[in-house]
Design a protein that fits this description.
Elements (H helix, E strand, L loop, with lengths): L5 E7 L3 H12 L4 E5 L25 H14 L3 E4 L2 E5 L5 E5 L2 E10 L3 E3 L15 E2 L2 H4 L7 E5 L3 H11 L4 E5 L12 H6 L3 E4 L2 E8 L3 E8 L5 E5 L2 E4 L3 E3 L29 E3 L11 H19 L4
Parallel strand pairs: 1-2, 1-6, 2-3, 6-17, 8-15, 9-10, 9-15, 10-11
Antiparallel strand pairs: 4-5, 5-6, 7-16, 12-13, 13-14
Helix pairs in contact: 1-2, 1-6
Bound molecules: NADP nicotinamide-adenine-dinucleotide phosphate (NAP).
Length: 309
Amino acid sequence: MREIHVYDLIVVGGGPGGYTAALYAARAGLDTLVLEKLSAGGQMALTEEIDNYPGFEEGIDGFTLAEKMQQQAERFGAKSAYAQVERMDLTASPKVLETSEGTFHARTVVLATGANPRELGLPYEAALTGRGIAYCAACDGMRYKGKTVVVVGGGNSAAADAMLLSRIAQKVILVHRRDTLRATKVYHAPLMQAENLEFRWNSVVTELLHEDKLTGVKVKNLHTGEEDTIPCDGVFISVGRKPATELVQGQLELDRSGYIIADETTATNLPGVYAVGDVRTKPLRQVVTAVADGATAVHMAEEFLAGGV
Ligand code: NAP
């Protein structure tokens, strides 16, 4: 019988937290593999410009930063495999990861699966995705050059999307359910100054109007109850994220929103399993906090492998 290869550490997800874990693990001499679905970077790779990651004084685009992180980890011997994880047994010893490209085994696992855009849950939302409905302005914004678009949400993502789209589209209408943005102050002044940007406060989108593609939205004012129609070519939905934790349900403790419960140590309820970046419970989800998690997880994994906690 062929002997199975057991990695010291497998990282699931190649975003900034994942590749930082891979860098630290490989540099520490651990036999390390990153399992990534498509390409490095996760949500970061879809970000047009990152201005709050130290060391890049002019900013850097997320795709390039992701490539750099991957190459840095691989310089120390970390390997990457493009495979979709389908099932995991995190209680087994070694831990078992069944993927589209075969089964992998590891003594420790770092989960860096991140979070995906949350949907509004409106009828036809899925069917119209790519035909007027979008979740990423950096990816799809250029398709709406000179057109009218609606952005839904009031957090940092909605603010960043509205800013970006105001430079591309003819008109941007930001629909937010409250009377003030949740986004950090740095966005407020530039948004207020953008001449082609209009705010619809205390309002929600209630209907997606369409023929073969989106033609407009119905918007309801939550204070007055009045409803009106906004004709538009696109709607960018930026209402937060949902963690990619379906695969670990029943094995790991999750909070009410589905995030893996793990504190600053990144340790989960299972020995040898760590959660880093956007997928774990934490107060601030940023590239800089994800990379910190990656380093901490490997510190913990090394202790575990050495027979400690
Ligand atoms: P977020 O901060 O959770 O904001 C979500 C926004 O969508 C909130 O304004 C929320 O309204 C609204 N919302 C949620 N569900 C809704 C619904 N069903 N209908 C209408 N509106 C709804 O999410 P995010 O903006 O995607 O950001 C996610 C994380 O990434 C955050 O930690 C954020 O700081 C970070 N991020 C940072 C930057 C940056 O620093 N440059 C850029 C992008 C993202 P309420 O305000 O009423 O709750």
